[in-house]
Amino acid sequence: MARNLGIFLTICGLLLGLSTASDWNILNQKAGKYGFEITLKNYCESWRMNVELHNTRDFDIVPEECVQYIGKYMTSTQYKVDSEMTIDECRVYVSTSCGLQKDGADAWIFDVDDTLLSTVPYYKKNGYGGKKLNSTAFEEWMKQGKATALEHSLKFFNELKGLGVQIILVSSRREFLRSATVDNLVDVGYHGWKTLILRGEEDENMNIQKFKAEVRKQLISSGYRIWGILGDQWSSIQGLPTAKRTFKLPNPLYYVA
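The structure corresponding to this sequence follows.
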């Protein structure tokens, strides 16, 4: 966090004609020679944007000064609109560029957490990413099956199902959470997926990107045409082989490599 903020402050100091970065205060900034103000909100929005652009990577926690901003974003209309825009782009792609053959081999991959199910209720009670994740506590929360549906994803899920596309769920959740995950998905309205793939014991030492790429390799070898992937982490959509198109939902709460 300190390194990223230091870089940002240095750049702002140059733009505003300040003599040194130490003269610059993010909470008390006046208009510079370019006629704009740099505020804490500006910095946090820039940080969030660079997470989505995959410029900011491998962070353990949200910067302390941005926790409140990220919390507001994740519960805001803007987050919903950003997510809806992603889903709309998926729909355009499916309707214009997917030559679905409807032979049982057309497939679409969904991630689970913060793609189909929202973990925001957990993070709301645990500092909106401002605290290092307690994996044990997080998995205990998952076992309760209290994650809510992301309505935009649920609608698209059902639209694909109606087109005869095989829906494959690939999650970094561990295998012992299968029963709780299935129950949670069904309880909030997700029905009729083809398969749910979770990490077994043999996968737990593998990074998530490699794990999901290996799953795709096996699916393609089995004859599936993977038209698209929808996920909230870059590790869900990067790596070879991949789908014909990939789509990322916004999520600045955490980073999964």
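The longest strand covers residues 166-174.
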